[in-house]
Amino acid sequence: MLYFLGFIALGAVASFLIFKLVAFGKTVEVPLLTGKSVSEASTLLSDIGLSLEVQGEAYDADIVSGKIIRQEAKPGEKVEKGSSIMVIISQGKAMIAIPYFEGMDIEDAKLTLKRLGFETGKITRLYSDTEQKNRVIAQRPLPGYSDNNKVNFLVSLGPYDVSYKCPLFIDMTADEARVLAKTLGLKLREKDSGSVVVFQRPESGAIVKKGDTVEITLGRRGGVWF
């Protein structure tokens, strides 16, 4: 009986070793892992007798963080069972530093973007009483770190053009003329000296715009200097 049991045990060990040897030389086809999460890929590989090994991480603009972007063994390649498949995991889009452009001339901002390797996005223009023409009013993304290398701008067209008839400054005092000009957004260029306005250019009724200059000549009432 002992010899019989020993013979059975020996046969079982031999069968196990033969099975291991056969399994050792068996190959399987590597599946596509790109775009899958680490847990998904690990399960997929485990089911066919392979294992996953994360080799490193890298930025990728197309594959979200945590997903596989590259695998060492290509999909469809034959490898031995028990092998490890090395992969690279995505860190998502690379974060880049966006400079501060507000208040800068739009052409200078575009040149700066080009030198940094960024792209100029959408440029929207509007009138502004606070920013000079062609100055950047706002930007998106905001200054700081972003995963977007394209910058959109809101750019000033300068003050809105307001046209009206030039008022009559003649016979006003110098102070009255200055107050009226300031109220209308006009600039005064004063000539000579005196207490009242005796001449103006352009004349009363001419079309002027906000920001235009009106030249006035100062003298005494009735235009008498002496």
Main β-sheet, spatial strand arrangement: 2-5-3
How many domains comprise the coordinates? 3
Report the structural category: alpha/beta
CATH class of the largest domain: Alpha Beta
H and E order: HEHEEEEEHEEEEEHEEEE
Low-confidence stretches: 16-23
Distance between the termini: 151 Å
For the report, how would you describe the main beta sheet? 3 strands, mixed
CATH topology of the largest domain: Trypsin Inhibitor V, Chain A
- Mean pLDDT over the full residue set: 87
Percent of sequence in beta strands = 25-35%
Record field, number of beta strands: 15
Radius of gyration: 41 Å
**SS element count, helices:** 4
Structural description of this entry:
With 226 residues, this protein is of the alpha/beta class. The chain has three domains: 27-93, Trypsin Inhibitor V, Chain A, CATH 3.30.10; 96-156, Trypsin Inhibitor V, Chain A (2-Layer Sandwich); 163-223, Trypsin Inhibitor V, Chain A (2-Layer Sandwich). Residues 16-23 have low confidence and may be disordered. It is built from four helices and 15 strands. The strands form six sheets. The protein has a three-stranded mixed β-sheet with strand order 2-5-3. Strands 7-10-8 form a three-stranded mixed β-sheet, with helices on one face. It has helices spanning 2-24, 38-46, 106-116, 174-184, and strands at residues 27-29, 51-58, 68-71, 78-80, 84-90, 96-98, 119-126, 136-140, 144-146, 150-156, 163-165, 187-191, 196-201, 207-209, 213-219. The chain is rod-shaped.
